[in-house]
Amino acid sequence: EVDDSSVEDVDSSDEVVDSSDEAVDSSDEAVDSSDEVVDSSDEVDDSSDEAVDSSDEIVGSSDEAVDSSDEIVDSSDEVDDSSVEDVDSSDEIVGSSDEAVDSSVEDVDSSVEDFDSSVEDVDSSVEDVDSSDEIVDSSDEVDDSSVEDVDSSVEAVDSSDEIVNDSLELLELLTLTFEQNILIDAPVN
């Protein structure tokens, strides 16, 4: 019975050893997991540092944006001042435009008077055209008479040519007669 009990104790001891080994293995796994958790924590710290740096950059950009916003406000104030000046200039332009409209109305009235005068000129021109037509008709009659005069002049020229020819023949005869008289009157040597 003692031997049997010893065997059971040995078996129990082996089970205890096995359980201890399993506990050691579990402890090792826990250590490995702890190491992984530490590594993850380090990565988180690094990411946190990067996030802080990014936050600092964002704060710097925000400060620059505020400065730009202040410059925009200053520019806006200048634009407002310029707008007031533009309104004043616009009022002056409106006043000048009113004067221009008044002047344009006067020009229209003058143009109406000029148109009436032009209508009278057109009526006078029509009368002048009628008179010109009468003058053209008279001129045509004069042209017909001039053609007849030209025909008569041509006939007169022809007659003059005949008279000249006759005169030349008579001059030749007189010349011959004069030469013959000289020969008759010349002394005989």
TrEMBL record:
It comes from the Eukaryota. This is Uncharacterized protein. Residues 1-56, 64-91, 99-158 have a biased composition (Acidic residues). Residues 1-158 are annotated as: Disordered. Gene3D superfamilies: Methyl-accepting chemotaxis protein.
